[in-house]
Each structure stands twice: as structure tokens, then as C-alpha cells.
Specification:
Layout: H1 2-10, H2 14-24, H3 29-55, H4 62-71, H5 78-83, H6 85-89, H7 97-116, H8 121-146, H9 158-189, H10 191-194
Helix pairs in contact: 1-3, 1-9, 2-3, 2-9, 4-8, 7-8
């Protein structure tokens, strides 16, 4: 359920367009990134509201609902991935390797602890969220060192970003729907079968 919204709003084409623009106009990098991250934050907040609203309609068990509420917060981290785009633009992706390894390692370790203690689903998704926050926090720190944000985010580039990213966004929606629709449909009839 969360992966559906994360797949759509986390990869709706804005990152691709922002990467293209900061590569074309490196002198405007900070402003473009701040603008794109602010737009992504608005989209992510909207996605989280839709996640919560969808729970009022779907008949998931309470512990699954709680897990969705907790892990759904991951969609709010999407703006941080945009701030890492300078590493892609400058072909310095090795800078992102250590945070990625931290996220994977921490996720695995925390998951094993929760399983060993017989923890609930909410603890499992909280472990995943904590690992993601740790990795994304490290990436944020690296990004803030790489790009000096001297001004506040503005909406000046939003119209352009939206106009350029919508075809990629439609592709993301279709791709995510094809991948997630069978699982979501099955979950409405038999949640155990999904597991």
C-alpha cells in the first residue's frame, strides 16, 4: 500500500527534470534544488494525506493500519533524495555508497532484533523507517556540504517542473499501478494471501 504511493510520488519525474536542469545550469543549482525539494515536499505531504484517507475506506486489520501509518511517513523523505542530485550531476555517486550501506545494514540489524524479540508489525515497519531516516539524514548532511543553499525555496520554477515532469509522472503511475495493483486487489480480499 505504501509502496504504491512512494512509487508514484517518489518518482513522478521531478527528480529526472531537476537533474537535467542542474546539469544544464550549474550556476542556478541551489535555487533549482530548493524549488524542486519544496515542490516534492508538497506532493509528498499530499500523498501521506491520501494514504491516511485510504485507510478509512480499506478494511485492513488494526495492526496493519498502524504499520501503514508509521511506514507511510517514508513518503515525506522524498525531498531529501532530490537534494542528493548534485552527486549524480557531478558523477560522484560513490559519495552515496556509505549512507546506502548504512541504511541496508541498519534495516537488516533492526529487523533481526524485532524478529528475535517477537515484535509486532509496527515494530518491523518502524525499524525500516528508522534505517531510512538514518541513511537519508547522512545523505542530507553530505548534500548540504556540496551545495550552499543561500536563499529560501520559491515557487518560481514549479510551473516549469510540473510541465516537464508530467509525462514521466504518468509513466511512473502506470508502472507502479501494474506492479502494485494485483497485490492491493488481493489484500482487499485476503490479506494473509498477500503475505
Amino acid at each position: 500500500y505504501v509502496a504504491t504511493f512512494d512509487g508514484i510520488f517518489g518518482d513522478w519525474g521531478l527528480g529526472t527534470i531537476a537533474l537535467r536542469e542542474i546539469s544544464r545550469r550549474p550556476e542556478e543549482r541551489a535555487g533549482l534544488l530548493a524549488s524542486a525539494a519544496a515542490l516534492q515536499l508538497i506532493a509528498s505531504a499530499g500523498a501521506y494525506v491520501v494514504i491516511l484517507a485510504g485507510l478509512t475506506v480499506l478494511a485492513f486489520p488494526s495492526e496493519v493500519r498502524e504499520g501503514i501509518i508509521v511506514y507511510g511517513l517514508v513518503v515525506l523523505l522524498a525531498p531529501l533524495s532530490l537534494l542528493s542530485l548534485p552527486f549524480q550531476a557531478d558523477l560522484r555517486l560513490t559519495k552515496l555508497l556509505a549512507p546506502s550501506l548504512l541504511g541496508v545494514g541498519l534495516h537488516f540489524a533492526l529487523t533481526m532484533v524485532v524478529i528475535a524479540l517477537g515484535g509486532p508489525i509496527v515494530a518491523l515497519v518502524a525499524a525500516a523507517l528508522v534505517a531510512r531516516v538514518a541513511a537519508d539524514g547522512w545523505v542530507l548532511r553530505l548534500s548540504l556540504r556540496a551545495v550552499r543553499f543561500t536563499a529560501r525555496p520559491t515557487a518560481v520554477h514549479w510551473r516549469y517542473f510540473l510541465g516537464e515532469s508530467w509525462p514521466l509522472g504518468i509513466g511512473a503511475v502506470i508502472s507502479t499501478a501494474i506492479q502494485q495493483a494485483p497485490t492491493l486487489a488481493l489484500a482487499t480480499f485476503n490479506l494473509a494471501a498477500v503475505g
